Amino acid sequence: GKINEEVWRFLLTGGVALENPYPNPCPEWLSDRAWSEVVRASNLPHLEGLKECVQKNVSGWKQVYDSLNPHEIEYPTPFSTLDGLFKMTVLRCLRPDKLIPAVQNFVLKNMGQFYIEPPTFDLAGSYSDSNCCTPLIFVLSPGADPMAALLKFGTDIGLTGNRIQSISLGQGQGPIAKAMIDKALQDGSWVVLQNCHLASSWMNTLENICEEVITSDRTDVNFRLWLTSYPSDTFPVSVLQNGML
What we know:
Layout: H1 5-13, H2 32-41, H3 50-56, H4 58-66, H5 84-94, H6 99-111, H7 123-129, E1 136-139, H8 147-156, E2 164-168, H9 174-187, E3 190-194, H10 203-213, E4 224-229, H11 237-242
Parallel strand pairs: 1-4, 2-3, 3-4
Domain Dynein heavy chain region D6 P-loop: 131-244
InterPro entries: DHC (IPR026983), Dynein_heavy_D6_P-loop (IPR004273), P-loop_NTPase (IPR027417)
Protein name: Dynein heavy chain 3, axonemal
């Protein structure tokens, strides 16, 4: 159905913070900020009376607050039938830490499994579209480890033995990685730099390597640089722009 614009905006922002004249009925476990959001949410469609319900049924709402899975249990009456964005709005007030799994459940129910699964990295397609000066970048998500698939792909196209060199970046690993790249540029092997997000102080060097060192006139055409990283503010923008995700 159609998404209520007012509820959607509240879900994203928590509403506009105004002076709250209503005392927090349960300050020992509910923060004043959360209570203020409950008060504001009470003005939304289908959530009228939420403030009064929390005031009158503190123990019932504390069970929601204390639950390991508050996004999967019923709320106290008369809000026990809430679902969708309206239920997530209340969750945002009380347990915002569970909003992501709630959104995933919502998308799963309304759109299907396909829309909550991270896209698979098309190794063959990305490789064929790349060249020796194009870094290939895996943006990691929790639990993801592309190394096994990458090693298998390398084997499938004939890279065996030490033709794929890998190093997990971290303190003191930068010079080793640089030496691996310098060698691979000449012999046309692959280098995989894992966990770039752990080497923020080395990212300027990586940027320089990609811009100044890995050039077509000094790089074997078979060379490839693969990078893995969780989203990071320190990852070089120019490498992202010139690389393949």
